[in-house]
């Protein structure tokens, strides 16, 4: 699948510089940036859901010192 995007001259210079700095094509730079963004947003969503489940479970956290005492550390 191919995509086409419009960039200003300034944006194009920045994209070219970034790609050159990392020795990759501009297309690869955009592909990496897109998937990094997708992964970050996915991770945030999963973390929010896990935290909500934790809150709804009624469990309470403890200070780390208490855990160390329980484990005899």
- Low-pLDDT parts are none
The average pLDDT score comes to 95
The profile of the biggest β sheet is:
none
Rg value:
22 Å
What is the 3D form? elongated
Q: Tally the helices.
A: 3
Strand content: under 5%
Number of individual domains: 1
What is the helix/strand order?
HHH
Q: How would you classify the helix and strand content by structural class?
A: mainly alpha
- Quantity of strands, as a count: 0
Distance between the termini: 55 Å
The percent range for helix content is: over 70%
What does this structure look like?
The structure is a single chain. With 73 residues, the chain is mainly α. It has one domain. 71% of the residues lie in helices and 0% in strands. The protein has three helices and no strands. It has helices at residues 9-21, 26-57, 64-70. The protein is elongated and about 60 Å long. It starts with 8 loop residues before the first helix and ends with a helix. The mean pLDDT is 95.
Furnish the topology, listing elements before pairings.
Elements (H helix, E strand, L loop, with lengths): L8 H13 L4 H32 L6 H7 L3
Helix pairs in contact: 1-2
Brief write-up:
By secondary structure, this protein is mainly α.
């Amino acid at each position: 699948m191919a995509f086409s995007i419009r960039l200003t001259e300034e944006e194009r210079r920045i994209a070219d510089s970034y790609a050159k700095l990392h020795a990759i094509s501009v297309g690869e730079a955009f592909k990496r940036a897109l998937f990094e963004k997708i992964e970050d947003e996915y991770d945030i969503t999963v973390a929010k859901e896990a935290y909500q489940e934790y809150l709804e479970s009624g469990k309470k956290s403890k200070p780390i010192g208490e855990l160390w005492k329980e484990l005899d550390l």
